[in-house]
Amino acid sequence: MAxxxxxxxxxxxxxxEVMQGEMNFCIVGTSPFIYNAMSEKxxxxxxxxxxxxxxxxKAANLKHSPFDEFRNSTYxxxxxxxxxxxxxLCAAFKKGIAAxxxxxxxxxxxxxxxxxxxxxxxxxxxxVPKIYCAIVRSADMNRTPDVRTRAILPEWACRISLRFMKxxxxxxxxxxxxxxxxxxxxxxxxxxxxGSLSYGQFRxxxxxxxxxxxxxxxxxxxxxxxxxxxxxxxxxxxxxxxxWFVEERQRREGKSTTNGTNGAHxxxxxxxxxxxxx
Length: 278
Hints:
Shape: elongated
Distance between the termini: 78 Å
Number of strands: 10
Strand content: 15-25%
Number of helices: 10
């Protein structure tokens, strides 16, 4: 079949008309979400590294401050009128959608990354944060073990708005990719995508979904600010570790400790320490 010829005699160029589509989604986590923001201490060290400490200076300074690390691991809204105190990067959901294309026939990661984007830079996160300590391996040659403290949302929910290129992509394709990202990719630290852990998984729900409504109602700004000020521990290991940390720090500082070794005492000690630091 001959190509259309313009009046000048050269072949006519035909370009597909493209439009933007937009879809809004409600998301509920199916596994806990772990924050992984880089702390201000690390930012400061990268911007202006501190001089090396000698043995006496190292002994006089604590290596970790779990309660500060807990708060610094989160992304937070600066707007006092925002519905939540906590938020998260929209780019994480876009990366999840693009990565999900690798495991789904008919989709291409680089193409999806170009044709889909999430509105805004941050998305409001609903859910009550708790303090979570875990043993991690450093990136050095010896894989040195260390304790990392982060904020974890046992239950969480959010709303995201996606835009995409039509008619190359259709609404059902976008919904399928986001749903797949929730199962096989996830968001946050320890997410399903990394293979070892299965945190940060989510599902798509309607606006009136009972879990979505409950989490948004009980996990808004007021509840989050209270939890950041007086955190509760997420699990038994964190409970025992923070109980020991509080008592050991008091001992080294020459302060008397209160009696008690059960989990309730650990949580009480943690709250007392936070109040003292504030």
